[in-house]
């Protein structure tokens, strides 16, 4: 689960991390009031969306000359006018795609006199099962570009969960950023604060870009991106309350109600599969035969007829879907349950696009019989390769 920058900073502030003063707002009038409260003389008006690259982004409605989604201004009037321009309009960045995201809230923050910019992030290292730090002197830049062009400028290390964060971890960060004296002490304190926040709140990612040194010789968290392990949200009611569903795909929200693993994609063939590995293979083979999947959807090993029906309805509700491929290998998941769900869903919502069903495994004959006797216009497939070819062909013929 992702949260907004201002929410991430509020959490980090609870743990003592140095963040600038700021106020979230939802209207231009609130932005003006916030500017007066913060006092200036420099303010930063920041669009709050779940995507990076806001500063370089452009607003669809404001034309080619529009300023970005993060603006440094020097008057209360400019704070208000920027807020009026940004709120309700669609910000397009490298991470949002062409569709962009509508800006519904802003963060008005006091300006900072920046001397140096760094990059610092924390994430779960799956290979070592530890929390890893990633640190670089190249703050403010796309870390993927830094990794590609100058990998020697990225320092990584992990923390043993048996000991937790230790003083030498802070010294490692200070050396990586060429900090000494009081700044090195600040770096050590920040490492402790961030590690405590990361582990206490079950974060999956904490990214600070940039972490800056101000002209007053202070370390400051100038931006913060935080996401949480969705499997642990039930332990954190305070974190769950921060969820902004307007930033999420409506189909993904609906899928979460039924505990379905669903991710919307840009293709035209809807997929319903059981098992993440099989789902990935299904998407790959659709692409191999010249088309793109419209979603990743894993109904899981213990799906019920209700879940399968819900999954099918979510797929058919997507207007970009021009064909559907159901690919089930029954182990714990029984083929007849899938068949019952598909039949029920088609009866509820109808079937306007080609449907290919491939069933194999537990109760496969019962599942095939149910579909065969249902009267549905279904194309049967013998294996994954056969299924992929048939759905691609059917979609092309229907176009």
From TrEMBL:
<protein>
    <recommendedName>
        <fullName>Succinate--CoA ligase [ADP-forming] subunit beta</fullName>
        <ecNumber>6.2.1.5</ecNumber>
    </recommendedName>
</protein>
<comment type="subunit">
    <text>Heterotetramer of two alpha and two beta subunits.</text>
</comment>
<dbReference type="GO" id="GO:0004775">
    <property type="term" value="F:succinate-CoA ligase (ADP-forming) activity"/>
</dbReference>
<keyword id="KW-0067">ATP-binding</keyword>
<dbReference type="Pfam" id="PF08442">
    <property type="entry name" value="ATP-grasp_2"/>
</dbReference>
<keyword id="KW-0816">Tricarboxylic acid cycle</keyword>
<keyword id="KW-0479">Metal-binding</keyword>
<feature type="binding site">
    <location>
        <begin position="53"/>
        <end position="55"/>
    </location>
    <ligand>
        <name>ATP</name>
    </ligand>
</feature>
<feature type="binding site">
    <location>
        <position position="109"/>
    </location>
    <ligand>
        <name>ATP</name>
    </ligand>
</feature>
<dbReference type="InterPro" id="IPR016102">
    <property type="entry name" value="Succinyl-CoA_synth-like"/>
</dbReference>
<dbReference type="Pfam" id="PF00549">
    <property type="entry name" value="Ligase_CoA"/>
</dbReference>
<feature type="binding site">
    <location>
        <begin position="331"/>
        <end position="333"/>
    </location>
    <ligand>
        <name>substrate</name>
    </ligand>
</feature>
<dbReference type="InterPro" id="IPR011761">
    <property type="entry name" value="ATP-grasp"/>
</dbReference>
<feature type="binding site">
    <location>
        <position position="112"/>
    </location>
    <ligand>
        <name>ATP</name>
    </ligand>
</feature>
<feature type="binding site">
    <location>
        <position position="117"/>
    </location>
    <ligand>
        <name>ATP</name>
    </ligand>
</feature>
<feature type="domain" description="ATP-grasp">
    <location>
        <begin position="9"/>
        <end position="241"/>
    </location>
</feature>
<comment type="function">
    <text>Succinyl-CoA synthetase functions in the citric acid cycle (TCA), coupling the hydrolysis of succinyl-CoA to the synthesis of either ATP or GTP and thus represents the only step of substrate-level phosphorylation in the TCA. The beta subunit provides nucleotide specificity of the enzyme and binds the substrate succinate, while the binding sites for coenzyme A and phosphate are found in the alpha subunit.</text>
</comment>
<dbReference type="InterPro" id="IPR013650">
    <property type="entry name" value="ATP-grasp_succ-CoA_synth-type"/>
</dbReference>
<dbReference type="InterPro" id="IPR005811">
    <property type="entry name" value="SUCC_ACL_C"/>
</dbReference>
<keyword id="KW-0547">Nucleotide-binding</keyword>
<keyword id="KW-0460">Magnesium</keyword>
<comment type="similarity">
    <text>Belongs to the succinate/malate CoA ligase beta subunit family.</text>
</comment>
<feature type="binding site">
    <location>
        <position position="209"/>
    </location>
    <ligand>
        <name>Mg(2+)</name>
    </ligand>
</feature>
<feature type="binding site">
    <location>
        <position position="274"/>
    </location>
    <ligand>
        <name>substrate</name>
    </ligand>
</feature>
<dbReference type="InterPro" id="IPR005809">
    <property type="entry name" value="Succ_CoA_ligase-like_bsu"/>
</dbReference>
<comment type="pathway">
    <text>Carbohydrate metabolism; tricarboxylic acid cycle; succinate from succinyl-CoA (ligase route): step 1/1.</text>
</comment>
<keyword id="KW-0436">Ligase</keyword>
<dbReference type="InterPro" id="IPR013815">
    <property type="entry name" value="ATP_grasp_subdomain_1"/>
</dbReference>
<feature type="binding site">
    <location>
        <position position="223"/>
    </location>
    <ligand>
        <name>Mg(2+)</name>
    </ligand>
</feature>
<feature type="binding site">
    <location>
        <position position="46"/>
    </location>
    <ligand>
        <name>ATP</name>
    </ligand>
</feature>
């Amino acid at each position: 689960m992702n949260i907004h920058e201002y929410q991430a900073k509020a959490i980090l502030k609870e743990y003592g991390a140095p963040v600038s003063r700021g106020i979230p707002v939802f209207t231009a009038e609130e932005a003006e009031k916030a500017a007066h409260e913060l006092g200036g003389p420099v303010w930063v008006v920041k669009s709050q969306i779940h995507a990076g690259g806001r500063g370089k982004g452009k607003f669809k409605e404001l034309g080619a000359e529009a300023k970005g989604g993060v603006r440094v201004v020097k008057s209360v009037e400019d704070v208000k006018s920027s807020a009026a321009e940004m709120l309700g309009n669609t910000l397009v960045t490298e991470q949002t795609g062409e569709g962009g995201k509508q800006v519904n809230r802003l963060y008005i923050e006091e300006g900072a006199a920046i001397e140096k910019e760094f990059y610092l992030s924390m994430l779960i290292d799956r290979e070592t099962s530890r929390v890893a730090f990633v640190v670089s002197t190249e703050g403010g830049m796309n870390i993927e570009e830094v990794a590609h062009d100058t990998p020697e400028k990225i320092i990584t290390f992990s923390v043993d969960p048996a000991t937790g964060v230790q003083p030498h971890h802070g010294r490692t960060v200070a050396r990586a950023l060429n900090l000494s004296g009081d700044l090195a002490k600040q770096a050590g304190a920040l490492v402790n604060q961030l590690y405590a926040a990361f582990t206490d709140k079950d974060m999956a990612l904490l990214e600070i870009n940039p972490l800056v040194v101000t002209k007053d010789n202070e370390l400051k968290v100038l931006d913060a991106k935080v996401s949480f392990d969705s499997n642990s949200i039930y332990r954190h009611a305070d974190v769950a309350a921060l969820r902004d569903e307007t930033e999420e795909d409506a189909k993904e929200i609906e899928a979460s109600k039924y505990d379905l693993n669903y991710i919307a994609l840009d293709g035209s063939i809807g997929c319903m599969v059981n098992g993440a590995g099989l789902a990935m293979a299904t998407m790959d083979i659709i692409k191999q035969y010249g088309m793109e999947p419209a979603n990743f959807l894993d109904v899981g090993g213990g799906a019920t007829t209700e879940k399968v029906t819900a999954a099918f309805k979510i797929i058919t509700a997507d207007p970009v879907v021009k064909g559907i491929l159901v690919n089930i290998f029954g182990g714990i998941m029984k083929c007849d349950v899938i068949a019952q769900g598909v039949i029920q869903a088609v009866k509820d919502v109808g079937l306007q696009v080609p449907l290919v069903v491939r069933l194999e495994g537990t109760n496969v004959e019962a599942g095939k019989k149910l579909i065969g006797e249902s009267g549905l216009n279904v194309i049967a497939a013998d294996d994954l390769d056969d299924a992929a070819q048939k759905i691609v062909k059917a979609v092309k013929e229907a176009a």
